[in-house]
Amino acid sequence: MDSRKHVLILGGGFGGLWATRALASAPVRITLLDRTNHHLFQPLLYQVATAGLSAPDIAAPLRHILRAQKNVTVLLGEAQAIDPANRRVTLDGGTLDYDYLLIATGAAHAYFGHDDWAEHAPGLKTLDDAFGIRQRILAAFEAAEREDDPVRRAAWLSFVVIGGGPTGVELAGTLAEIARHTLPREFRRCDPGTAQVHLVEAGPRVLSAMPENLSENARRELARLGVTVHVGQAVTGIDAAGIALGNARIASRTVLWAAGVAASPLGAQLGAELDRAGRVKVNPDLSVPGHPEIFVAGDLASLAQADGKPVPGVAPAAKQMGAHVARVIRARLGGNAATNFVYRDYGNLATIGRKAAVVHFGRLKFFGLLAWWFWLTAHLFFLIGFRNRLVVLVDWAWSYWTYQRNARIIGGQARRR
Amino acid sequence: MDSRKHVLILGGGFGGLWATRALASAPVRITLLDRTNHHLFQPLLYQVATAGLSAPDIAAPLRHILRAQKNVTVLLGEAQAIDPANRRVTLDGGTLDYDYLLIATGAAHAYFGHDDWAEHAPGLKTLDDAFGIRQRILAAFEAAEREDDPVRRAAWLSFVVIGGGPTGVELAGTLAEIARHTLPREFRRCDPGTAQVHLVEAGPRVLSAMPENLSENARRELARLGVTVHVGQAVTGIDAAGIALGNARIASRTVLWAAGVAASPLGAQLGAELDRAGRVKVNPDLSVPGHPEIFVAGDLASLAQADGKPVPGVAPAAKQMGAHVARVIRARLGGNAATNFVYRDYGNLATIGRKAAVVHFGRLKFFGLLAWWFWLTAHLFFLIGFRNRLVVLVDWAWSYWTYQRNARIIGGQARRR
Questions:
Q1: Is residue B177 helix, strand or coil?
Q2: Cys-Cys with A242: which of A211, A252, B118, B205 at CB 3.0–4.6 Å?
Q3: What is the interface size between A and B, counted as CB pairs within 8 Å?
Q4: Is B187 in the A-facing interface, judged by CB distances under 8 Å?
Q5: Looking at residues B204-222, what average pLDDT do you find?
Q6: How many structural domains compose chain B?
């Protein structure tokens, strides 16, 4: 029998993968369970959705990443129920017992109680989501080319992105570039250059996590690209024909959701208190109240920083949490006390199309071309795997010079939705 | 009104695309209709199915390829009915009238009357097929890793390819390489190196279009890679648990179909004679008997060469047919007589895993490493678009040195089928 303690990690995102790696030399055996076979670099997922990158550029098989770490077994599967009393997780087929459990299953889209909007306004969390959105975007231009009626054609050439956070800003900016620069010469009956791109944000400004002057710069860059930015206006309805903003309507056949997230439902099975978004309120060491052997990391964890602000739901926070859980488990195994998690904010950045980005690093704030180079370098650096970095660089250089997008391939099935 | 004759081309494969290009300077307007948005380099499709290449490596949007050819309009859509009397095609929404019609919609899989086999043994014709097969192959290894029962595990690690033509040989060889070289270090509970790969051919030898000594060489290479080749044995049953070969059974959870093709059903609407596989028996100039304004090219056309052998269903034949149809249309427009189509056989080649291939070029026959380099160069040369060639070369070099496969990414939905 293997006398090592068994650490079960649910989710191979930033939280789960960083915890797994940080336990490489610990005297434990680890099982890493994920619903997909890959770790996904989510910050660039919008580029797969907008046909700039292919899936392998931003995803790598978990078992390939971890091939040399002999104390970990990677399994493809989904956790369906957690039984904390018996320290057991039920999968889609079989069960797994654990000594320590890390739940890092993240978040999904939330439609603020309007689940019927999901069908008309898909969100972007997984590669499958990205392929679905790519299909919708490219098929909309194809439908416009086939449509003779000018009103219906305009609705196919109208795109709405809901949510003015980094993903919404990046999607809207890229959509405008595709319409203005990538496609025009290729169509004969419609003019993609006449496409309308709307970005809708309920709050007073886009990129609300950034300082105000950077938000304002992002708004100007979006306007320069041809994006119509609607701030301070909440969506009140979404259907197949478009959206409602109070009494106004925007006709659009392609609405994308980048607004709300809800935590993974697994958190609710722990009997612990949840916050408004369904996240688990964790102890300062990231363990679950009443269960020192269960931890939560990443977007599923709810924790306040020393200044009272919540730890944000971003990739660096998830990585740091994962690594911290590994430290706590090591401390426990050694009979030492667990330390509290402290989030280190290394900054915040977002890109708005070609050659423009905004960067906020402590006291450093800058935007424009320099910020864009900074964004590019940082994202390349954090991509896992040398091959990915090389090919992504080639793809980006290619797109930069030619305005072309490499991955404009859609299948046959969902032709016109 | 546009007084130019309207040429309607159904299908953007080799036949349709080569005809379109050859009409670039003709005084016609062209509509090219395809069910997908891309031209597909089918000879490398098996590499997408086996996770070696990504979709954009072997596919490019038709409207991007043809962006500079101003006399062509590309439409995404599907022809549903042909009305030769009124020179009209009905689409999924709307109709298109034509002066000249080229039908180049190719072939799909055929299961010799066993349509129930389709569910258990998918074939490989489209990118969607390739993604489905990739998902099955990778998910089978994942299922083996989760399976504790040795008999059930062995069935997950057993792969059957039916059909010993080029596609079947390439699939089986690549599957054996993945099991032996790509995956072993990455699994903890099962050993992918113990996987069984079976290639089943009803005829007396694999690659039957090749000279006998090259078939024999291919068989030896397959055996060296660990593929069990069954020749002279027809499949008599396929279900979820495996296949039947007469009285014998092979247990397998992953069966792939590379055996039979059937022509596109559009051909049957012309009132012309069809051959046994449903192909349209065309006149020597590739027009349809009784309809000099309708042509068929590629896998849907049935035509005998001067020596009585049929023109084979391969990419070079489809390209030559497409170009010939363009010549005939130009001749008709100029009041000249149409010439007969003559197929020029430039040779035949197939690859069997790393560093091995067989080549038959007229009197030239060779195999082994030199043939493999020849195969690689030829395929790179014929790939459309410089960017594709460059990235495919990088991917191949990477795979060659590392034994890794770049595109091992599967989605969440079809996890365990």
A1: helix
A2: A252
A3: 152
A4: yes
A5: 93
A6: 2
The C-alpha atoms of residue A174 and residue A178 are separated, in whole angstroms, by 6
B203 domain residue, yes or no:
yes
> Percent of chain A, pLDDT > 90?
71
- Among all residues of chain B, which has the CA nearest to that of A94? B146
- B170 as an active site residue: the answer is yes
CB contact set of A164 (below 8 Å; sequence gap of 6+)? A199, A200, A201, A203, A205, A206, A207, A208, A229, A231
Instruction: Work out the end-to-end distance of chain B between its first and last CA atoms, rounded to an integer number of angstroms.
Output: 54
Q: Which domain holds residue B246?
A: 111-259
Task: Please report, for residues A227, A264, A355, B51, B278, the alpha-carbon distance to residue A390 in angstroms, rounded to integers and kept in the order given.
Answer: 31, 34, 20, 19, 47
- Give the tens place of pLDDT for each residue, B33-68: 999 999 999 989 999 999 988 888 898 899 999 999
Which residues 52-81 of chain A have a CB within 8 Å of chain B? 54-56, 59, 61, 63-64, 66-68, 72-78
Confidence band of B216 (pLDDT split at 50, 70, 90) = very high
- Indicate whether A403 belongs to any domain: no
Q: Is A62 helix (H, G, I), strand (E, B) or coil?
A: helix
Tell me, yes or no, whether B184 lies in a domain. Answer: yes
Higher pLDDT, B56 or A203: A203
State whether residue B391 sits within 8 Å of chain A by CB. yes
Give A-chain residues touching B415 at CB under 8 angstroms.
Answer: 35, 76-78, 92
Q: Do B63 and A186 touch (CB under 8 A)?
A: yes
Q: Is A288 buried (19+), middle (13-18) or exposed (0-12) by CB count in 10 A?
A: buried
Residues A229 and A125 in one domain: yes
Segments in A52-126 forming alpha helices (H):
55-58, 62-65
Specify the pLDDT at position A414.
42
**What number of other Cβ atoms are within 10 A of residue B86's Cβ?**
9
The Cα of B148 is separated from the nearest Cα of chain A by a number of Å equal to 10
Sign of the Cα pseudo-torsion (B38, B42, B43, B47, in order): positive
Could you say which of B67, B78, B187 has the minimum Cβ distance to residue A185?
Answer: B67
Question: CB of A417 within 8 Å of any CB in chain B?
Answer: no
Helices (runs of H) and strands (runs of E) counted in chain A: 11, 25
Shared domain check, A98 and A146 = no
Which of B55, B407, B391 is closest to A394 using CA atoms? B391
pTM for this model (two decimals): 0.91
Closest-CA residue of chain B to A64 = B186
Q: Specify the DSSP element, H or E, that contains B62.
A: helix B62-65
What's the alpha-carbon Rg for chain A, to the nearest Å?
Answer: 22
Question: What DSSP assignment string belongs to B342-359?
Answer: ------EEEE-STT-EEE
Is B94 in the same domain as B142? no
B94 touches chain A (CB under 8 A): yes
* Alpha helices, DSSP H, located in A280-368: 315-333
Does residue A385 register a pLDDT over 70? no
Q: Are A270 and A222 in the same domain?
A: no
pLDDT tens for each residue of B226-257: 999 999 999 999 999 999 998 999 999 999 99
Testing the interface with A: which of B40, B409, B415, B417 to mutate, by most A Cβ within 10 A? B409
Q: What is the pLDDT of residue B385?
A: 66
Closest to B146 (Cβ–Cβ): which among A67, A77, A126?
A77
